[in-house]
Write a structure and sequence with these properties.
Elements lengths: L10 E2 L6 E6 L5 H12 L2 E4 H11 L4 H10 L2 H16 L3 E4 L3 H4 L4 E6 L2 H12 L3 H23 L12 E4 L5 H14 L3 E2 L4
Parallel strand pairs: 2-4, 2-5, 3-4, 5-6
Antiparallel strand pairs: 1-7
Length: about 200
């Protein structure tokens, strides 16, 4: 496997405009992966989480206040989804980390990050300084709500269906450098970047 130590050796083919979306459940490392990939390629990093924070600021609400409003009014979720889709239509050369960006940006290269449930819950627990049991309960409740919402709003039966994505990467078996290298290798196969010289 090619190392990322010399990141400048990965060359973007300038004539190719790329849209890359990264999906993963909590604890799979999607934000770290997306930011690292964006840094290497010089692409813009986008996140639906950041967009959500921008919407809260526009509404002059704290994040917690806005989350409560969104739970009562699904139109805010739909507004966020519309922003994601519009961004994808009007921009190129970006890495978008989101649960539904792959759906709203259908012409993107879609990456799915996977990780065992126990491992990803442990990662979130360590990151948020919570007990494993607390994070497990919160995660299962949140993901159950997500699955229900996606089915109700978009008729998506299973966001974990690997057929939705172009590339599946296991972040439990591979560290961050290896994950990003696998993605870059897949992009090289499609002519989006050139493989570095050994």
């Amino acid at each position: 496997m090619v190392s990322l130590k010399n990141t400048s050796s990965w060359c973007i083919l300038k004539e190719f405009m790329a849209k890359i979306t990264i999906f993963g459940l909590a604890g799979t490392g999607k934000s770290s992966t997306a930011k690292r990939l964006a840094d290497i390629l010089g692409y813009e990093f986008k996140s639906s989480g950041n967009m959500f924070r921008e919407m809260a600021a526009e509404a002059n609400m704290t994040l917690n206040e806005f989350e409560k409003v969104c739970q009562e009014d699904p139109n805010y979720d739909k507004m966020l989804d519309a922003r994601v889709g519009e961004y994808g239509k009007t921009h190129d050369n970006f890495i978008f980390e989101s649960r539904l960006a792959w759906y709203y940006i259908p012409d993107s290269f879609k990456v799915m990050l996977v990780c065992g449930e126990t491992e990803r819950i442990q990662r979130v627990a360590e990151r948020e300084n919570k007990t494993f049991e607390q994070v497990q309960n919160e995660t299962l409740e949140r993901e159950g709500s997500i699955y229900k919402r996606f089915k109700e709003y978009y008729d998506i039966d299973n966001i974990n269906d690997t057929s939705h994505y172009n590339l599946i990467v296991d972040t439990q078996k591979n560290n961050l450098e290896e994950v990003v290298t696998l993605i870059l290798a897949a992009l090289a196969e499609r002519g989006i970047v050139t493989t570095p010289q050994k």
